[in-house]
Structures are given as structure tokens and as C-alpha cells.
């Protein structure tokens, strides 16, 4: 068999990724405002089904939380990164990270998004964190919004459906660019921008119950439109403040294969895949695709657009496309009787040729190469993989260490396929950040026990543990891989 070298361009950005609401903890410290994520367990204790109804004011919620409601919720503790960030970044540097993807919590920068003045303590925290990255020559890649809208957007607005939220967001983005721009060359506007269609609360602060006067789908399309405008305005603002900075969009790179070669299954797959790209199309091309406008019209919905909206979208086109990639599954026109597989927020028909993680996500390194080629052929802008990883239940062995060959294999096989996409398919890929480079609270399970990290954090789902950090075997593997600039041959 032909020997392959798995090469990457000089300066390729190797690193890891996290999000504020999954690691920081300190949810009430130093003037941080309350967020949707801080309150989500309310639905689990039956006080309200947050996703459907919401009759509280922010003050009610604050009082209930202060009285100890859901006090054991893992997201509020995170991994205490707010207090351990220096140690965490030192460990990232030890692995040789060139880049660290993190997010800023809007609620730390503005306690209430309507405040005129930003919260100085929040600014100071992120400045210190960014300086710490720079100390080790780690390039920060900063996401402005990663699934954590301020609660006020639900209680006092109708989430992103309210056009005023755009101004609030841009005020926040401006503070970030002005205060942190000297440390940051790479920005992302919204994490998994397409996610609002699948979970309207966490991405759009949209609660169905608040839209009894209209079709909820109509509200989601309108909220998406406002988020597109906010993203475009943020891109333009960032370029005007720091012309050298690059700012991109971020999508969930779902990938479906036709379950059979029946034309019906192919058509179902094509339609599904078209849906996946439609909002990134706006961010890259600066305009709505006809098929999305048709879909909105066919559903009897209407998009309210102001005369300036088209030029805002045109002037705010992104510099790169970034994405998360974990798994693939299949599409069939008729799913009755077929096995289904769960995935990253969406289910698909189970692919009999793939292995599954403990959570049923179907691992597919070749699907990453297919995704890179699809994205590059479509957009012709640099690509950045900003989330890829394997969630697993790690066990501490008798020797006191964590041996995680499954994670190493997942990493190696995905990296090989990235190299093939660059060297054989001509894809322009600028970086790779492993999701959850340090153990963090999982988004879908909201627990610690689904672990992604190269670094183990000693805390369980109930907050028991020392929070001590400990490198796993994969830590040393990734360190070697980065030192060899990805040559895993
Ligand atoms: C992505 C999110 C991340 C992250 C990841 C893994 O969709 O952007 O925030 O959590 O999925 O998902 P999970 O934590 O559910 O395993």
C-alpha cells in the first residue's frame, strides 16, 4: 500500500475549544447577569416547562434562585474555570496549543444588556484571560455568542424576534472589539447559527408560549433574520475597528448520506442538506437563497425586512466559515421500520457501516473529509474546524491514570482525513480546535460525565470532587501530534 505523509501547512492553528457557560461556573460572581442557561433546570423540577411557557419576571427568577432552587445544577458550577483559568491555559500551552477557542459571556460584560455602562469586572476577567493566552503565544479565537442569552431577552423582550435585540447585541460586540481587539485576531459571531431552528430557547431566547398571536415558525424565521443582521453588523464593525482581524460564522456541520440509492432517498438527503447550509449561505454570499425565501412563503410565513436589510447583509460577509463536526447519519424518504440514531441535536437513520459512541453518535472520520470538500466547493473561503471530539465516560485506572485510546483513535483518524482534504482535494483549512479540550459540562446532557477533554477534571455530576486537573493519555498524544504539525503517519 502507498505510504502517505499526513502534512499540514506551516502555521496551521492547532488547539482546543470551550464555551463560557460550560466551563466558567461563578454564575453570580462579579456582576454577572442571569442567563437562560442559569435557569434551564426549572423545567426538570417541574416549576415550568421553560421551553413552552414562561410567566416569570427576571426578578422572580432571581429570587427563586437566591432561595436555592436547582442549586446543584452543573452548569452553574462549570469546572470553575473562572478561578482556575491560569492553570488551564498553562496546560493548554504545555500541549503546544497555537489557538484557543473560547466564548465571552454577554452577561459578564453587561449585567443587564440594557445597561449603559459595561461591567468593569467582566471586562477585567476576559482581559486577564486573553493576556494569559498571549503570554504563551496562543492565538485566541473568540465566539461572541455561544448558547447563553441573557434572561432579560425572554422576560422583557420576545427573544431575537424583537428587533431591538440587534442593537443590544451590537453594543455588546462593540465593547468586545474595543476592549479585547488588541489580543484577538479571530472572531466568531454566533455558535452553530442554525441551531435556533432546532432549539429556539438556548439560541434565540424564543419561548413558544410568548407567540400565541402568531405561528411560532414565523417567529423563528424572523428571529433568524435578526440574528443574520446582527452577525453582519458585527462583522462590519469588527473590520472597521480592527481591519486586520478575521471574523467568521459558525455552523453545525451535519452530514447525511442517502440510506439507499433510491431516487426518493437521494431527494430527501438533498433537501435536508440544503436546509443545513441556508443560513451560512446568507453569511457568506450576503443574500437569501431563493429556496429559503420559497420555503418561508410556502409555509405561509412572512419575513419583515426593512429597506436597509439587504445592504446590511451584503456589507457584513464573513471572512471564514467555521463549523462543528462530530458524526454523520442517513436520510430515507420513508423511515418506518428503520433504526434511528441520535446525533448532535438531530436524529437520522442509523448507518450500518459506522460505529457509535456511548451516546449513539455515529463516528465517521471520512465524513469529515466529505464535509470539508462540500463546504469549500460551495463557499471558497478558508475553513476552520472549531469543534470535533468524542464524548466518553472516562475511568480512572488502578495506576491512577486515565487511558483513553478511543479518544486518541478518534483524533488520529479525523486528522488524517483533514490532511487528505488539504493535500488531495485542495481544501483551504486554517485550523482545528478539539471540542472540550478540558472536561466540561455537556450541552445535551447538562452533566459532567460525558467527557471530551484531554485534561480530566475531578468533579462529578453532583459537584463532588476536588476540581483537580489531570492530563489523560490523549493529552500526551495531542502534544506529540501538534509538535509534528499533524503528521500522524
Ligand atoms: C455542540 C455545541 C457545544 C458542545 C458540543 C457537544 O453542538 O456547540 O456547546 O456541547 O455540541 O455536545 P454535547 O455536549 O451535547 O455532547
Record the SSE blueprint.
Layout: E1 13-17, H1 20-23, H2 36-39, H3 58-66, H4 74-77, H5 81-95, E2 99-103, H6 106-109, H7 120-135, E3 139-145, H8 152-155, H9 164-180, E4 186-190, H10 200-204, H11 216-241, E5 246-252, E6 256-258, H12 263-285, H13 290-298, H14 309-315, E7 320-324, E8 329-331, E9 340-341, E10 348-349, E11 355-356, E12 362-363, H15 365-379, E13 383-387, H16 405-423, E14 429-435, E15 455-457, E16 469-471, H17 473-483
Parallel strand pairs: 1-2, 1-14, 2-3, 3-4, 4-5, 5-7, 6-8, 7-13, 13-14
Antiparallel strand pairs: 9-10, 11-12, 15-16
Output the keywords.
glycosidase, 489 residues, 8-stranded parallel barrel, 17 helices, binds 6-O-phosphono-beta-D-galactopyranose, TIM Barrel, alpha/beta
Descriptive report:
With 489 residues, this protein is α/β, with parallel strands linked by helices. The chain has one domain (13-483): TIM Barrel (Alpha-Beta Barrel), CATH 3.20.20.80. 39% of the residues lie in helices and 13% in strands. The chain is built from 17 helices and 16 strands. The protein has an 8-stranded parallel barrel, surrounded by 4 helices. Helix 11 (216-241) crosses helix 14. The longest helix is centred in the middle third of the chain and has 26 residues, at 216-241. Mean pLDDT is 93; it is low at 43-49. 6-O-phosphono-beta-D-galactopyranose binds at residues 19, 191-192, 252, 324, 344, 387, 391, 435, 442-444, 450. Belongs to the glycosyl hydrolase 1 family. Keywords: Glycosidase, Hydrolase. The active site is at residue 387.
Amino acid at each position: 500500500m502507498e505510504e502517505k505523509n499526513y502534512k499540514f501547512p506551516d502555521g496551521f492553528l492547532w488547539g482546543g475549544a470551550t464555551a463560557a457557560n460550560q466551563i466558567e461556573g461563578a454564575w453570580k460572581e462579579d456582576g454577572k447577569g442571569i442567563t437562560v442557561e442559569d435557569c434551564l433546570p426549572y423545567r426538570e423540577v417541574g416549576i415550568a416547562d421553560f421551553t413552552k411557557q414562561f410567566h416569570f419576571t427576571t426578578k422572580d427568577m432571581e429570587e427563586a434562585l437566591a432561595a436555592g432552587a436547582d442549586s446543584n445544577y452543573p452548569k452553574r458550577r462549570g469546572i470553575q474555570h473562572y478561578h482556575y483559568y491560569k492553570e488551564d491555559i498553562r496546560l493548554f500551552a504545555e500541549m503546544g496549543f497555537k489557538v484557543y477557542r473560547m466564548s465571552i459571556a454577554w452577561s459578564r460584560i453587561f449585567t443587564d444588556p440594557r445597561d449603559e455602562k459595561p461591567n468593569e469586572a467582566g471586562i477585567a476577567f476576559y482581559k486577564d484571560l486573553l493576556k494569559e493566552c498571549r503570554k504563551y503565544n496562543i492565538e485566541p479565537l473568540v465566539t461572541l455568542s455561544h448558547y447563553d442569552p441573557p434572561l432579560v431577552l425572554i422576560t422583557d423582550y420576545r427573544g431575537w424576534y424583537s428587533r431591538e435585540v440587534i442593537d443590544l447585541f451590537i453594543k455588546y460586540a462593540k465593547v468586545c472589539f474595543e476592549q479585547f481587539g488588541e489580543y484577538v485576531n479571530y472572531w466568531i459571531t454566533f455558535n452553530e447559527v442554525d441551531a435556533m431552528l432546532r432549539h429556539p430557547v438556548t439560541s434565540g431566547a424564543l419561548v413558544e408560549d410568548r407567540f400565541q398571536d402568531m405561528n411560532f415558525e414565523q417567529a423563528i424565521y424572523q428571529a433568524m433574520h435578526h440574528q443574520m443582521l446582527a452577525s453582519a453588523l458585527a462583522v462590519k464593525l469588527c473590520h472597521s475597528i480592527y481591519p486586520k482581524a478575521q471574523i467568521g460564522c459558525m455552523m453545525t456541520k451535519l452530514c447525511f448520506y442517502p440510506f439507499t440509492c433510491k431516487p426518493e432517498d437521494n431527494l430527501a438527503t438533498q433537501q435536508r442538506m440544503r436546509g443545513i447550509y441556508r443560513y451560512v449561505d446568507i453569511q457568506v454570499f450576503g443574500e437569501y437563497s431563493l429556496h429559503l425565501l420559497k420555503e418561508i412563503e410556502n409555509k405561509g410565513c412572512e419575513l419583515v425586512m426593512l429597506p436597509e436589510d439587504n445592504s446590511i447583509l451584503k456589507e457584513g460577509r464573513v471572512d471564514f466559515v467555521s463549523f462543528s463536526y462530530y458524526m454523520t447519519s442517513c436520510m430515507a424518504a420513508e423511515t418506518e421500520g428503520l433504526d434511528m440514531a441520535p446525533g448532535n441535536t438531530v436524529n437520522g437513520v442509523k448507518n450500518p457501516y459506522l460505529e457509535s459512541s456511548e451516546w449513539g453518535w455515529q463516528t465517521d472520520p471520512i465524513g469529515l473529509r466529505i464535509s470539508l470538500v462540500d463546504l469549500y466547493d460551495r463557499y471558497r473561503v478558508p475553513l476552520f474546524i472549531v469543534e470535533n471530539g468524542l464524548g466518553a465516560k472516562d475511568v480512572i485506572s488502578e495506576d491512577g491514570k486515565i487511558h483513553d485510546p478511543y479518544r486518541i483513535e478518534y483524533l488520529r483518524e479525523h486528522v488524517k482525513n483533514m490532511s487528505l482534504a488539504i493535500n488531495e482535494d485542495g481544501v483551504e483549512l486554517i485550523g482545528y480546535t478539539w471540542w472540550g479540550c478540558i472536561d466540561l459540562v455537556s450541552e445535551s446532557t447538562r452533566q459532567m460525565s460525558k467527557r471530551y477533554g484531554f485534561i480530566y477534571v475531578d468533579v462529578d455530576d453532583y459537584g463532588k470532587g476536588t476540581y483537580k486537573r489531570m492530563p489523560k493519555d490523549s493529552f500526551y498524544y495531542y502534544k506529540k501530534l501538534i509538535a509534528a504539525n499533524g503528521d500522524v503517519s
